[in-house]
Amino acid sequence: FFFGSMSRLGTFLRKSPKYIFGAATISGGAYLYQWKSFEFFFDEPHPEDKPRLVVLGTGWAAMSLLSEIDCEKYNVSIVSPRNYFVFTPFLPCTTVGTIEWNHCIESVRRVLFRFRKRAKYYEAAASDIDFENNKVTCSDVLKKDDDPTKSFELPYEQLVIALGADNNTFNTKGVYEHATFLKSLEDAKAIRKRILNNFEQAALPSTTEEERRRLLHFVIVGGGPTGVEFAAELHDYVHDDLSKYFAKECKKYLKITIVEGMDRVLNAFDKEIAKYTQEKFKRNGVEVITKTFVTGVGGETIDFMDARTKERTTHPHGLVVWATGITTKPVVKGFMSKLGTHQKNARALTVDGRLTVKGCTNVYGIGDCSTIQCEKLETLLDSLWNQQEYVKDGGLTFETFQKFVADHRKQHVQLDFLGDRLEQLFEKHDTEKNALLSKSEFKKLIQEADSKITALPPTAQVAAQQGSYIAQRLNHLGDTRHSVMPFAYNHRGSFAYVGSDEAVYDSDMIKLKGGAAFWGRNTAYLSKLFSWESKRNIMWDLFWSKWFGRDIATY
Ligand SMILES: Cc1cc2nc3c(=O)[nH]c(=O)nc-3n(C[C@H](O)[C@H](O)[C@H](O)COP(=O)(O)OP(=O)(O)OC[C@H]3O[C@@H](n4cnc5c(N)ncnc54)[C@H](O)[C@@H]3O)c2cc1C
To answer: Keyword annotations for this protein (predicted)?
Structure first.
């Protein structure tokens, strides 16, 4: 078959030189045109008459905005110390080499060119936001000293803050010194190096048994999607690759532990999915310790406290990965303090339903750095209670309560997050046990919803949708025919990889576990990458690591 095909190809090439010449000329011309236009693409000066839009950040929120913003309407400037976008859902894969780290990033300049967005990018960090004079101070991140001449100011008419968030250690002793985070590419590289170094050290004849046990105990703090995915990737790496190259003994000492403060992992997912994940981990030998807090991290030990009994224990570790909690960045905190009483939530930049920063008119906050202040349901209680379609016989039945939630979840995001707990909440607040919620019982229920669920989850999905919303808002600014609806989050479900080519998927309509969810996850993530180049690289990595193994060299 092979030789037959080759000979047919040879005959075709000999007989059709004009087609080949034509195709080569067209492709060559297209290629040259592309690179010629590229050469001058970023050189065009910003025209004076357009309003200036400054975007801080190059993460999910900012890149989604930039892909949709109309650069004919604004002089767009982007500021970020990172000249690339990180596709975070694949970051846990890079810690063990399932995907190469440079394949899950995209250059900001290339993305701008691909979308033909004539915007200026500055590799700098925003250090101060002066909303009274409409300017941002930025500093050169590559400078060696605190030279003030290395900072510059960017004036703006519109400002978008998409600065993301920092890791939250909850003031736990020793986390910065001895644990590793999993938020950036540098973190992923450091984790990979540490895993391999620990295995190499454990394999030395001079290493004692006790030391081997310590080196190969990997502790993951936080049972959210990031912690779960890292544990799953680490399990696969050890079982598929490292166990082949290191003495069987190393596998004997290996221990992977997830420590979670709540009563289960994947707390934001459906209960059944969390149960499935924990059972899967049990089968794979990954230990899950729930209702336990980490109280301190040392160079070689980690302290746990059982939330129920308050009993404290100390365990040796070879690596601690801190995968829980986020907090406000210092530059955002500084900006919030200038806004005084407009910013009452210390945990994030408060924005209104249209994502405008409270206390400003031309500054928007999107992604992990911001939180939407929802209109409290409690203040609407009287008008809600008077709606005849829900209140029957002086109260709400479970069916009318369900209908009420379904009808109002678009406007009141806190209802959206009651998720699968409706029955549980109804039962809890039906104190008279008459299958009917009276007004006072209903008030208590919505107070609970108001108090607990006031923020959207800090996910790429939320950030990307907010970026897209602000792009549309800015594109239509001043257009009286275009009314701006409040931002409505559309949850499209969440994936988490749980190991051995299995994943879980949770959405309002569909719940998936196993191989189908794994392929669904890969397809969904690949479709979200900006370039075909990244899609090709990642598909290749997934195929290669599956069939030929991951890299085990330390560099
Ligand atoms: C390992 C991991 C896996 C994840 N997996 C998922 C997932 O599967 N699904 C999901 O929905 N979410 C996931 N997330 C969450 C998701 O990545 C975040 O919610 C998302 O990145 C938030 O986007 P953002 O634009 O607000 O912030 P970021 O993406 O963090 O971007 C912040 C940007 O601000 C820039 N910046 C920082 N400081 C400054 C400064 N001083 N001046 C200028 N720029 C600055 C940064 O360089 C960066 O470009 C994951 C997160 C992690 C860490």
So the answer is: FAD, Flavoprotein, NAD, Oxidoreductase, Transit peptide
Q: Whose CA is nearest to atom 51 of ligand 1?
A: 88
Domain presence at residue 365: yes
3-state helix, strand, coil in the chain (%, to 5): 45, 20, 35
**CA 5 to ligand 1 centroid distance, Å:** 49
Whichever domain contains 340, its CATH number is: 3.50.50.60
Instruction: Examine the domain organization and report whether 181 and 37 are in the same domain.
Output: no
Residues 473 and 501 both lie in one domain:
no
Asked whether residue 445 is domain-assigned, the answer is no
450 within domain boundaries: no
Task: Among 80, 494, 523, name the best residue to mutate to test ligand 1's pocket (greatest count of ligand atoms within 8 A of Cβ).
Answer: 80
Is residue 164 in contact with ligand 1, taking CB distance under 6 Å? yes
Q: What is the pLDDT of residues 290-341, one digit of tens each?
A: 999 999 999 999 999 999 999 999 999 999 999 998 999 999 999 999 999 9
Give the mutation target among 65, 104, 331, 368 for probing the ligand 1 site: most ligand atoms within 8 A of CB: 368
- Judge whether 139 and 127 are in contact, CB under 8 Å: yes
What amino acid is encoded at 56 in this protein?
L
The vertex-207 CA angle with 204 and 209, nearest 5°, equals: 125
**β-strands 502-506, 511-514 pairing:** antiparallel
Ligand 1 mean position, distance from CA 165 (Å): 7
pLDDT digits (tens, 9 = 90+) for 208-264: 999 999 999 999 999 999 999 999 999 999 999 998 898 777 788 999 999 999 999
Whether 110 and 226 share a structural domain: no
| Per-residue pLDDT tens over the stretch 30-71 | 766 665 555 555 666 677 789 999 999 999 999 999 999 999
**Euclidean distance between CA atoms 75 and 52, whole angstroms:** 5
What residues contact 111, with CB distance under 8 A and at least 6 apart?
A: 63, 66, 67, 85, 530, 531
Domain with 345, as residue range(s), is 45-165+328-373+466-490
CA atoms of 522 and 265, how far apart (whole Å): 22
Q: Is the CB of 367 under 6 A from ligand 1?
A: yes
ipTM reported for the complex surpasses 0.90? yes
Same domain, 253 and 189: yes
Q: Determine whether the shortest distance from the Cβ of 315 to ligand 1 is under 6 A.
A: no
For residues 30 and 156, state if they share a domain.
no
Q: Would the CB of 182 count as within 6 Å of ligand 1? A: yes
